[in-house]
Design a protein that fits this description.
It is a single chain. By secondary structure, the chain is of the alpha+beta class. Helix content is 40%, strand content 17%. Strands 1, 2, 3, 4 and 5 form a five-stranded antiparallel beta sheet that branches.
Length: 187
C-alpha cells in the first residue's frame, strides 16, 4: 500500500487537549492551505475561505466565547467559563473553514457547500500528511451569530468547522468503523 493510502487508512482525529506545539510554521501552513483549496469547485467560485487562529488570537477569541457564554448563562460555573476561554487554545493552530455558498445562476448551492466540506477534509489530510494531527470540530459557537461576527464572517457565511492542528501527545485508539456491507449498495 502506498504511503498516501496508508495515511488515509489509518488517520485518526486527536482531541484538541491532546494536541501540542509545535504547530506548522507559516510556510508549512501555507502549503497545507494551498492543498486544502485544491478541491472540486464548479464555476471556480472558491465558495470557502480560511481563518487562521494562532498565537495570542486563540486566547482573544476564547475570551469572546467566554463572554458570550456568560451573557447567555449569568450563573455560569467558573470552570465552564475557563473551558470556553481555552476552547481554541489547546492546539497551536486552529483553522476555521468558512462556507461562502450562495445562490448562483449555474452552480447549485449544495455543490458549493460540499466544496467547503471537501476543503476542510483536504486540510485535515494535508496536515496529517505533513506530520501533524488534527481534529475537525464545530461546537456551539460555529452556529452563534455573535461568535461568527467576532470572527469576521459575513451574514451569509457559515462555519464548516474548526480544524485544530498540532503534534499528538498520544495517538488515540481507533474508533469502530462501519462495515462496508452496512454502507455500500452495489447495483
Amino acid at each position: 500500500m502506498t504511503a498516501t493510502l496508508d495515511l488515509l487508512r489509518t488517520r485518526r482525529s486527536v482531541p484538541p487537549p491532546r494536541l501540542e506545539a509545535p504547530g506548522p510554521d507559516r510556510e508549512t501552513l501555507d502549503a497545507i492551505l494551498t492543498i486544502a483549496s485544491r478541491v472540486p469547485d464548479h464555476g471556480k467560485l472558491a465558495p470557502w475561505r480560511f481563518i487562521v487562529i494562532e498565537g495570542e488570537a486563540r486566547h482573544r477569541v476564547g475570551e469572546t466565547l467566554a463572554a458570550i457564554h456568560a451573557a447567555d448563562n449569568p450563573g455560569a460555573d467558573p470552570a465552564r467559563l475557563e473551558l470556553e476561554r481555552n476552547r481554541l487554545a489547546h492546539a497551536p493552530v486552529v483553522v476555521g473553514v468558512v462556507s461562502r455558498a450562495g445562490p448562483h445562476v449555474k452552480i447549485p448551492e449544495w455543490e458549493q457547500v460540499l466544496s467547503a466540506g471537501a476543503a476542510a477534509m483536504n486540510l485535515v489530510v494535508a496536515a496529517n500528511a505533513a506530520g501533524f494531527a488534527t481534529a475537525w470540530l464545530t461546537e456551539w459557537f460555529a452556529y452563534d451569530r455573535r461568535a461568527l461576527d467576532a470572527l469576521g464572517l459575513a451574514p451569509a457565511e457559515r462555519m464548516a468547522g474548526f480544524i485544530h492542528i498540532g503534534r499528538p501527545a498520544e495517538i488515540p485508539s481507533d474508533r469502530p468503523r462501519p462495515e462496508l456491507a452496512q454502507i455500500v449498495t452495489r447495483l
